[in-house]
Amino acid sequence: MQKQVTRRGRPLGATTFEVEPALAFGAVVRALRTADGVGQEALAHQAGIERSHMGKIERGEHMPTLAMILRIANALGRTAGELLLETESVLTEQQNARQQSQATDS
Q: What letters, b where the CB count within 10 A reaches 16 and e where it falls short, cover 13-44?
């Protein structure tokens, strides 16, 4: 049996990702990390990923896999559900702000 090679980045065949959820998730991770007084490098180490990769996640330049979300949540002492609920809340706030802006522009 041939050993399976682990590759970094997006799954094979994936060429794009949605920017808004990536930005919202990254903002949530950064806010929780800073609120806890944890450095980016320390969080990345606890989650088992490279610091530069954590930076990309926090800036919304990379959408983490489910496995990575679980590791980040664990490193933050939270559940993946909590992270996703916070992300959904940020997205809802952004959507409401856009709708209000459009309503005032009309």
A: eeeeeeeebbbbbbbbbbebbeeeebebeebb
Of the listed ranges 22-31, 47-56, 68-77, 97-106, the one predicted with least confidence = 97-106
Closest CA to 58 of 81, 76, 79, 77: 76
3-state helix, strand, coil in the chain (%, to 5): 65, 0, 35
Spell out the residues 6+ positions from residue 8 whose beta carbon is closer than 8 angstroms to its own.
53
Q: How many CB atoms lie within 10 A of CB 80?
A: 16
For residue 5, how many other CB atoms are within 10 A of its CB? Answer: 5
DSSP 64: -
For the question of whether the overall pTM of this predicted structure is more than 0.90, the answer is no
Instruction: Indicate if the alpha-carbon torsion angle 11, 71, 5, 2 is positive or negative.
Output: negative
Give phi and psi for 60, each to the nearest 5: 80, 15
